[in-house]
Amino acid sequence: MTDQVKVPVSYSEVSGVLQKTLGLSGSPVAVKLAKSREDIPAGMAEEKEVIRHCQMVNKARREGLVFFATADKHQCNGGAWALGLREITPTLQSGEFYFKLGKFESIAACKRTMDQIPHLGTGTTYATLYAPLEKAPFTPDVVLIVTSPRNMLKLAQATLFRQGGRIRSEMAGIQSVCADATVSPYLSGKANYSLGCDGSRKFSGIADDEMVMGFPAGLLPDLVAAVKVVTAAPGSK
Q: For the whole prediction, is pTM greater than 0.90?
């Protein structure tokens, strides 16, 4: 692999801390946006089904699977486009697709939303790699966590613990796991919190009482250290 981090991180250790302190039902998920075949560890399994990115995240989260998926294995056109695997389809670009699904009052409203969806350049991603964080055989770009609003509160507090400030998350009620929780943190270098979307809740096991967030893997050491403090703080619920 060509992009190892300079300061090694024990993904098993930090995943254990997150699972224990937050009582997660499932693992944090490591995601890598591989630029070439050389970025995929030797012997890593390839996804055999044609499914959605959010479903792939769920397979790592719930089933503990480690695998990669090229563009032809991504079912959702919106997700594949946002992740840099495929060109945007004409109906997505125009706004027609989500308008027909009843998400917006007009095609113009949908078009304005689509124009602001975080996305990578077409063809910049060769494959998406997935693993439970504790089992990741690759250097992740982004870590995703699906959990309760209470735990999102603790993660938000941990995000602000060192520098303070305000949480400014971006979401649109569509493309939550692909654009909101994966691409947005990858591009911005900051954590992003999302309420999920109809597709991810329908297909990927995000429960009605859960949310999703993603953050750059480079934030892991500070975030995990802060989670331990804020969850044990005297004023913590």
A: yes
